[in-house]
Design goal:
The complex is a heterodimer.
Chain A lengths: L4 H18 L11 H17 L7 E3 L4 E3 L1 H20 L9 H4 L1 H20 L3 H19 L5 H32 L4 H7 L8 H19 L7 H8 L2 H26 L4 H24 L4 H17 L7 H32 L10 H4 L1 H15 L5 H15 L3 H26 L14 H16 L4 H18 L2
Antiparallel strand pairs in A: 1-2
Helix pairs in contact in A: 1-2, 1-5, 2-3, 2-5, 3-5, 3-11, 3-14, 3-19, 5-6, 5-11, 6-7, 6-11, 7-9, 7-10, 8-11, 9-11, 10-11, 10-13, 11-13, 11-14, 12-13, 12-18, 14-16, 14-17, 14-19, 14-20, 16-18, 16-19, 17-18
Chain B lengths: L2 H18 L3 H28 L1 H4 L9 E7 L7 E6 L1 H20 L7 H20 L3 H12 L1 H9 L4 H30 L6 H4 L6 H18 L8 H8 L2 H26 L1 H27 L4 H21 L3 H32 L15 H14 L6 H15 L6 H30 L16 H19 L2 H19 L1
Antiparallel strand pairs in B: 1-2
Helix pairs in contact in B: 1-2, 1-5, 2-4, 2-5, 4-5, 4-12, 4-15, 4-19, 4-20, 5-6, 5-7, 5-12, 6-8, 7-8, 8-10, 8-11, 10-12, 10-13, 11-12, 11-14, 12-13, 12-14, 12-15, 12-20, 13-14, 13-18, 14-15, 14-17, 14-18, 15-16, 15-17, 15-19, 15-20, 16-18, 16-19, 17-18, 17-19
The chains are: A mainly alpha, B mainly alpha.
């Protein structure tokens, strides 16, 4: 059962923390803080995950749970995002008042979400997929509302309702697929869809018509993105970071399952739809981001536009496509986490969420300003930072399919995005700070996470062997599945 | 690690060292030592280049690159770390080394956040050197953007006037240009069917006409934005006027040359058929460039705007030379890049020095300054003469070649049209004489208009070294053009051969 170990370790850690909390042990002087347990749990989970390398592919429960090389990379991305999120937590939770903030429960909820996401990556039939998707998203609603203010409740409710709507779209589509094919497993549905009858073609179309919006909700594609800015703003900042990284990767996992594992024969016909969704999403995200004054809402729209770029990777049924999506996911996680580490510290210590409040950061805290600048440039796709390489590969997928106009729109969109990223950099570097602005301080764990994320932002895109491994993993998968 | 990697990364390492330096004085010394070392390295490179066997017996079919360094990078994606140098690159490297060295000298009095200033300046130059020696499109693109982006902070923090507006406008317009480049590069990559970004291999491919028709203008406009192609030049006057001295020097002197360099090296070389289709159109645009820039300069009241418009005109000549599609025109274009680089470098450094004393750049507020600062006035006049194309200075050599090229025409276009455009462009020489002589006379000749000017001093030692170095280079190119011509000609041959194929 070693293939289940990564998920198992997360759940074990969660229960372990719950038990310690039960005895009120976190409040004693000698106790290690909860994030220590969570970080080691996630760390061991990552190790056990990559220990599976070489044993893949393995199959459990009659093909409902499969670990392939490509899944290892997807799960790795989710776990890395989870790891960085936990490093942000000490910055917002007051250590002297752990119980009042329900810090241990917070971490436990986060770990449950993570394990749901891991299960999602390995699921190979519709029921497992749906259950693990709910397991991944339900705890997130609670995390969003953690601050228990009116405002956070509003955001969480919006997220809950729209998330439920998205899920119901999905489950309805799944129902039609099941009715049509009589099967729940991805592979047999895919084969059954290979040559649909003329009179059942409409049914397939109907299923697609429900599943694409469902996917759109999870992946924040236009016009299903509306929950994101509110939920991002309402959440505690580390949760915002988690939503924009781990949650996004989960959306990509879902897209991989649905578009490549189920609708692989329909992908060619779906291309125009995806191109329109992708272009609309990146353009809307960018143009609305320009107008934002709140940092979190701003990051929400920025991450919406990133989802638009990511969708380009699904235009092709080839290993390069999924490899570039995965490669960009890793880059995006490191970059976004570096940005969010600084944003978390800033929001927590100044209690201001306004972009204007970042003014003069380069004078008060030069190191943190430099990190945020690097991260924003990477998000804008400026070489030699990682974000550029990732974007270049994604755009290349669209160019390969002959969509040169789409590449042009995406590239111009990158320029537009540079405008609003530069506006933040202008606040930090050109404007002067208020007189009594103190410099930012970070707990040790957060600082270590921040340094790690920054290293990733700068270097991970330049490491060719890393991309080659991902490409190799995708090729293995394609050898197995798409003949 | 070969000599070319050294050429690219000496400025970068210098920037790293600067980050660890403490006092402003050490920072400046490190910057000066680094760029001085770099100047030396590029002289060594030139010496080795002329004495290498490849230069004596060049391979007529390929680019005949020297000092090639090639390592696979993203091998599945056809990306390699591929550096090489030919005559055109070498000329540009020499130019850039001189400009950055004098640029560091010219910013000797930057006190505000000098650490960041010099680090960014050197980072920018790393990008510039990288562009000139990389022969892999992916690598080229990386360096290209590294050369463009630090400009935002350099202008935004240390600039003057409406600096935030200018910095944003400049950055966004140039990034729009690189968005075009990215589309074109990806198009070349996929349509070649070779799965490679290697320029020497892409140059073996005969892209079909349909492809060439859209990729060539995309590339030419992409590079043209940086080369101040009309109507995409509008970032340039604002940007140059707001930038601090060294940044104006680098930007007008070197960075705008990336546009001309890319248009010649990538657009024309890789897509000869597209070039034949579009050349006349772009020739017409650059004619507007040349005339518009010089006429615009007449009306300017600010010395920096004045030089910036003159740059638009002179950089138009570079692109004009590229659009002539003949040997002499190309040669003139490369020479003009060198010549204009040195000349604008001198102009902007002098403007910085004068502004540092008078605290005004408005032409009408100055007068009779030659009496108090004879050295600066003489230098200014020499720069002016170079820009109006006085023989014995570099401008003459370059411009005469460009216009000769335009007048001689090429086999693919109507000779009458080309000659009409060339004659129209040559008129700019007269206009240039008008604005240069009138402007300089107002600033330096006549009686001193403001009593406070009497207390001003002439150039200090560093300033004298800066200007003397640039003036010497101007004379060197003007009096002994053979040095650069011998360097450039073998590198132009492959481009011409591909056009004639």
């Amino acid at each position: 059962m070693s293939s289940l170990l990564p998920e198992f370790l997360l759940i074990l850690t969660a229960f372990f923390i719950l038990i310690i909390d039960l005895f009120d042990a976190f409040n004693s002087e000698s106790s290690l803080s909860p994030e220590f347990y969570a970080l080691s749990g996630i760390g061991f989970s990552i190790i056990s995950l990559f220990a599976l390398w070489g044993y893949a592919p393995t199959t459990y429960f009659g093909g409902q749970f499969v670990v392939e090389e490509i899944d290892i990379f997807f799960k790795g991305a989710i776990l890395v995002a989870g790891f960085f999120t936990v490093t942000l937590l000490p910055a917002i939770f007051n250590l002297k008042n752990l119980v009042k903030n329900h810090y241990p429960e917070f971490i436990v909820t986060l770990l449950f979400t993570l394990s749901g996401m891991l299960f999602l990556a390995s699921s190979r039939d519709l029921v497992t997929l749906y259950v693990s998707l709910e397991m991944a998203t339900l705890p997130l609603f609670a995390l969003t509302a953690w601050e228990k203010s009116k405002f956070s409740a509003e955001g969480a409710i919006k997220y809950l309702i729209l998330g439920a709507v998205g899920s119901s779209f999905l489950i309805f589509g799944f129902g039609i697929l099941y009715a049509f094919t009589g099967s729940l497993s991805f592979e047999s549905i895919r084969v059954a869809l290979a040559q649909p009858h003329q009179d059942t073609l409409n049914l397939v179309l109907l299923a697609v018509a429900f599943i694409i919006p469902g996917l759109g909700f999870k992946l924040t594609l236009f016009p299903f993105h509306t929950w994101a800015p509110d939920a991002y703003q309402a959440s505690p900042t580390p949760v915002t970071a988690f939503l924009s990284t781990a949650s996004k990767v989960t959306g990509l996992v879902l897209a991989t399952h649905l578009l490549l594992r189920i609708f692989s024969f329909q992908l060619k016909d779906l291309q125009p739809v995806m191109v329109v969704l992708s272009v609309a999403t990146m353009t809307l995200g960018n143009f609305v981001a320009m107008k934002q004054e709140n940092i979190k809402r701003f990051m929400a729209y920025s991450s919406i536009s990133q989802a638009g770029y990511l969708l380009l990777g699904f235009l092709t049924l080839s290993p390069e496509g999924i490899a570039s999506v995965l490669f960009y996911s890793y880059i995006y996680i490191f970059t976004n986490m570096a940005a969010f580490a600084v944003i978390t510290l800033h929001i927590e210590q100044t209690q201001k969420q306004n972009i204007l409040s970042l003014k003069g950061l380069s004078k008060t805290s030069p190191g943190y300003a430099a990190v945020l600048m690097l991260a924003l440039f990477s998000l804008a796709g400026i070489p030699p930072l990682s974000g550029f390489v990732g974007k270049f590969f994604l755009f290349s997928i669209a160019a390969k399919q002959g969509y040169h106009i789409v590449v042009a729109i995406a590239a111009i969109n990158s320029t537009v995005s540079l405008y609003y990223y530069l506006k933040i950099i202008k606040q930090m570097y050109i404007n002067s700070p208020d007189e009594d602005t103190p410099s930012l301080k970070a707990p040790l764990v957060t600082k270590a996470g921040l340094i790690l994320a920054t290293m990733g932002t700068v270097f991970i895109g330049l490491i060719a062997p890393f991309y080659d491994q991902i490409l190799w993993a995708s090729e293995q998968w394609f050898k197995l599945w798409i003949k | 690690m070969g000599i070319l990697s050294l050429i690219v990364f000496i400025p970068f390492l210098t920037a790293i060292f600067i980050l660890f330096a403490k006092s402003p004085k050490t920072i400046k010394s490190i910057a000066l030592a680094g760029t001085g070392l770099h100047l030396l390295a590029s002289f060594v490179l030139t010496y080795l280049f002329f004495n290498s066997p490849q230069n004596i017996n060049p391979d007529p079919t390929g680019l005949s690159l020297q000092f090639v360094e090639k390592w696979d990078w993203f091998s599945s994606f056809g990306v390699s770390y591929f550096l090489g140098v030919d005559g055109i690159s070498l000329a540009m490297i020499l130019l850039t080394s001189v400009i950055i060295f004098t640029g560091v000298l010219a910013s000797w009095n930057v006190e505000n956040r000098s650490k960041e200033f010099f680090a960014l300046l050197l980072l920018l130059v790393t990008g510039v050197f990288g562009v000139f020696v990389s022969f892999d499109l992916f690598l080229f693109f990386i360096f290209y953007e590294v050369a463009v982006l630090p400009m935002y902070l350099l202008i935004g923090i240390w600039g003057t006037g409406p600096k935030e507006y200018s910095a944003m406008k400049l950055t966004l317009m140039l990034m729009l240009g690189s968005a075009f480049l990215m589309v074109a590069f990806l198009g070349l990559f996929h349509l070649s069917g070779l799965n490679t970004f290697d320029m020497t291999k892409l140059a073996q491919v005969n892209f079909d006409l349909q492809t060439q028709r859209w990729i060539f203008p995309t590339l030419f406009v992409g590079f043209g934005i940086l080369g101040a192609l009309y109507p995409f030049h509008t970032w340039s006057p604002d940007g140059h006027a707001s930038a601090p001295t060294a940044v104006s020097m680098l930007h007008a002197g070197v960075l705008m040359k990336l546009g001309g360099y890319g248009a010649l090296r990538i657009a024309v070389y890789l897509l000869p058929e597209g070039a034949k289709e579009w050349a006349l159109f772009f020739m017409a645009l650059t004619t507007i460039n040349i005339l518009y820039g010089s006429l615009g300069a007449i009306k300017q009241k600010d010395l920096k705007y004045f030089t910036a418009y003159s740059s638009v005109s002179h950089c138009g000549m570079v692109l004009f030379g590229v659009a002539t599609l003949n040997f002499i025109g190309f040669k003139g274009a490369v020479l003009q890049m060198v010549s204009h680089g040195l000349m604008t470098g001198l102009f902007f450094s002098l403007i910085g020095m004068v502004y540092g004393r008078t605290h005004t750049r408005i032409i009408n507020e100055m007068g009779g300054l030659a009496k108090v600062m004879p050295w600066l006035a003489t230098s200014f006049y020499i720069a002016g003469f170079a820009s109006l194309g006085l023989p014995s200075l570099s401008g003459f050599v370059a411009e005469s070649q460009i216009f000769m090229g335009g007048f001689m025409g090429n086999p693919w276009h109507d000779l009458t049209w080309m000659r009409v455009l060339t004659v129209l462009s040559t008129m700019s020489i007269v206009v240039t004489a008008v604005y240069v002589l009138r402007g300089l006379a107002q600033v330096f000749m006549g009686p001193i208009t403001n009593l406070h000017f009497n207390e001003l001093t002439d150039a200090s030692l560093t300033e004298k070294v800066t200007t003397a170095l640039l003036i010497a280079s101007l004379f060197f190119v003007g009096l002994y053009p053979k040095f650069f011509v011998d360097m450039i000609e073998p590198a132009i041959n492959p481009i011409i051969n591909r056009l004639n194929m």
